[in-house]
Design the sequence.
């Protein structure tokens, strides 16, 4: 098993250290529950009666990183078991972190904080706090300075999908946020995403120039560029037929026009339409490239939304990038990790649409 791995299951009465681990797979996604799958030897059914759905699963994995306060290793996953599958040779456990538990409950009434026009963070806190699961909210920020429309109706959605909808609205603004299940505690964190170019923020290191012998946090072995902004346009027309608005930017038509038409019923005047069109033109090619990076991790406590610094000629990947997706596998043969990284910024056009909808 890779360097050092421990799997613990907390039952109703005791904590078990699982043995016979065959493989571990973990996936962290942006503003979504983390999922872990553990495959264990099950000769003669030895392990299958030890755990059941609802028990707590903890995974500890590390090559070098330790908690500086206690000397113990970091949890790379902590959550509740949602599925158990056994056969004559293998016992498979699937678990979700505590954010995933909120997908089991339906909102039958709308949060009262929506009607009172309180901050979006307060709405998310209410949704979590009123859950039947015992989930702490002390790791959530106090405010986002964004208010949801008082006409928003979340009834019928699961608590998780309601939160994800609000997070989607928050993240069209220039300031972006992330929500995730904490790996070392039984709560959920809501945080402002770090600024990629903030000089006070210390990123994880996946490459240095000039190269040194200092250890890296992640060693890339394969880089693949997966997204590019190839649909370039040079003429945008914005239209609101009901209001009789038709505005094009730039005002002088280019000699070789590549035009797009946008119907925007929220546009109320020509000044707003012109701003909308200019933002579409200005956003082209802005931080839309993504990379899939496979490699060998030197730690397993990365979170989606963290910043990592690269220095590679392969795929044109260099400088600071944000992590949008993490998946890794640990087995007796070693460990491997796949990251999706990029510098995708807030969508200002969508932000304009969002701000316009709040006034209606």
Sequence:
């Amino acid at each position: 098993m890779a360097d050092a791995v421990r799997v613990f299951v907390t039952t109703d009465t005791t904590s078990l250290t699982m043995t016979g681990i065959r493989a571990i797979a973990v996936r962290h996604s942006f503003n979504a529950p983390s999922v872990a799958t553990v495959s264990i030897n099950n000769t003669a059914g030895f392990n299958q009666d030890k755990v059941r759905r609802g028990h707590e699963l903890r995974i500890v994995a590390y090559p070098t990183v330790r908690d500086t306060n206690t000397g113990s290793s970091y949890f790379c996953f902590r959550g509740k078991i949602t599925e158990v599958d056994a056969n004559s040779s293998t016992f498979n456990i699937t678990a979700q972190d505590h954010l995933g538990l909120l997908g089991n409950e339906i909102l039958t009434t709308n949060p009262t904080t929506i009607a009172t026009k309180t901050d979006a963070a307060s709405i998310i806190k209410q949704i979590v706090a009123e859950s039947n699961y015992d989930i702490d909210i002390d790791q959530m920020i106090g405010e986002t300075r964004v208010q949801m429309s008082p006409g928003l109706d979340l009834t019928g959605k699961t608590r998780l999908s309601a939160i994800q909808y609000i997070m989607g609205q928050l993240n069209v603004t220039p300031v972006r946020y992330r929500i995730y299940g904490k790996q070392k505690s039984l709560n959920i964190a809501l945080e402002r995403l770090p600024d990629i170019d903030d000089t006070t923020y210390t990123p994880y290191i996946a490459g240095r120039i000039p190269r040194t012998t200092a250890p890296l946090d992640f060693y890339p072995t394969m880089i693949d560029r997966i997204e590019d902004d190839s649909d370039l346009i040079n003429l945008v027309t914005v239209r609101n037929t009901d209001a009789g608005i038709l505005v094009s930017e730039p005002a002088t038509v280019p000699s070789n026009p590549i035009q797009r038409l946008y119907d925007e019923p929220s546009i109320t005047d020509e000044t707003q339409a012109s701003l909308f069109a200019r933002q579409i033109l200005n956003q082209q090619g802005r931080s839309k490239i993504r990379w899939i990076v496979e490699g060998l991790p030197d730690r397993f406590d990365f979170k989606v939304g963290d910043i990592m610094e690269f220095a590679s000629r392969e795929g044109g990947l260099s400088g600071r990038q944000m992590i949008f997706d993490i998946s890794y596998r640990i087995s007796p043969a070693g460990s491997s990790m796949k990251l999706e990284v990029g510098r995708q910024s807030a969508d200002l056009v969508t932000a304009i649409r969002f701000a316009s909808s709040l006034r209606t």
User: Anything to note?
Assistant: Residues 236 and 260 are 5 Å apart (CA to CA). Residues 270-282 form the longest helix (13 residues).
